[in-house]
Amino acid sequence: MNIHYEFPLEEVGYSFGFLDEYAKKEVRRTILKAICIPGYQTPYASREMPMGRGFGTGGLQLTLALIGPDDTLKVIDQGSDDSVNAVNLRQFVQLTCPGVGVTEKLEEATLIQSRHRIPEVALTEAQVLVLQVPYPDPLVVVESSEARRKIMHAEADYSRLLVKLYEDIVHFDEITISHRYPTRINRHYVIDPSPIPRWDVPKLDQSPALILLGAGREKKIYAVPPYSVAEPLVFDDVPFRVEDFRDEHGQRRACARCGAINSFLDEYSDDNNAKIYQCSDSAYCDGQLAQHQQREVKG
Question: Structurally, how many domains does the chain consist of?
C-alpha cells in the first residue's frame, strides 16, 4: 500500500485501526468470551484484510481491535523486529492508527504482536501478547471432522492425540514435535500454541500478561488469561523438554553476537559452511550486547 495521506485518516472515511467500529466491537466481544473460557476456540467473523491470509490476518485483527492512541506496539516475526512480515505489519498499523507509538524495546510496548516466538524477557501485567496462528486446533492431525473435534474438546477427550505422541516415542524414543506443541490450559482444553518452539511453551504457564491467539483463515480466537495453568501434553514417565543447544562436549552453545547462553538460538552457516548460533530474539540480543559494551566502558 504505497499511499500517502496529507490529512487525517478520519477525513477520508477511514476508521481508526482500519476495521470499522462494529467489526472491532465484535472482535472484542469474542476476545472477552475467549478469556472467560481459557483455551476454547471461539469462532468470530474474520474480516478481509489488505494482505494474503496466512500473513497474520488473525493476529492483525486482534491488534487493530485492541489498539488505542495511547498504546505502543511492538511487532516481531520469528524473534526479529526487522523481517519483511514484521516491518509490513508495523507500517500498516502506523498508517491506519495515527498517533500510535511503535518500538523495538519490549519494556516500552503495551501491545506485542508476534509470529512464531514469545519474547525472551518476561512479560508484565500491563502488556498483551497477540500470537498469529495458522491452524488453531491440535486435534486436526487425528480427526478431520470439526464437529467431532468440538465434542472431543468439550469432553476433554485427547486420547487419540496421546496415542499420536506415543507413536512418536515408539519410533524415535522421544516426542519429536519441534513446534506447535499441544498444551493443556487450566487442566481442560488443549490448544495449539501457534508455531512457537518448545522453548517458549513454559512461558505460557502463569504468564502475568494476557496472551491472545488469532487464526484469521480458520476464524477462531482463543486465549491464555493471566496466571493460567499451561501444561504441555506429556506422559508421566516421559517428561517434557525444551531444545538443547549443547555441543558434542556437553557445553551450552552461546550466541556468536552477544554471548548469551540462556536464549533460543537460530543456526546459521558462515562463508566456510561452519555452523554459528545467534539469538532468535533480536531485541534481546541487542540488549545483551549493549550491556556488555557498558561494562567494557565502565571497566
Answer: 2
- Which of 17, 39, 56, 287 is catalytic? The answer is 39
- The answer on 102 and 210 residing in a single domain is yes
Strand, coil or helix: what is 112?
strand
pLDDT reported for residue 275:
87
* Same domain assignment for residues 224 and 174: yes
pLDDT at 6: 45
* Assigned domain for 1 exists: no
pLDDT at 271 (0 to 100): 74
Asked if 249 and 201 sit in the same domain, the reply is: no
Question: Does 17 qualify as catalytic in the annotation?
Answer: no
Q: What is the pLDDT of residue 280?
A: 93
279 catalytic per annotation: yes
Catalytic residue among 59, 214, 279, 287: 279
Across the beta sheet with 183-185, the strand order is 189-191, 183-185, 230-232
Does the annotation count 36 as an active-site position?
no
Which residue range is the domain that position 267 belongs to?
A: 244-299
Cβ contacts of 201 within 8 Å, gap of 6 or more: 181, 183, 193, 230, 232, 240, 242
pLDDT tens by residue, 206-239: 999 999 999 999 999 999 999 999 999 998 888 8
- Is residue 97 annotated as part of the catalytic site, yes or no? no
Same domain, yes or no, for 85 and 139? yes
pLDDT on residue 7? 41
Task: Kindly state whether residues 151 and 270 are assigned to the same domain.
Answer: no
Weakly modelled stretches of the chain, pLDDT under 70: 1-14, 299
Distance in angstroms (rounded) separating the CA atoms of residues 94 and 116: 22
Instruction: Give yes or no for a contact between 142 and 160, defined as CB atoms under 8 angstroms apart.
Output: yes
Give me the catalytic one of 58, 214, 285, 287: 285
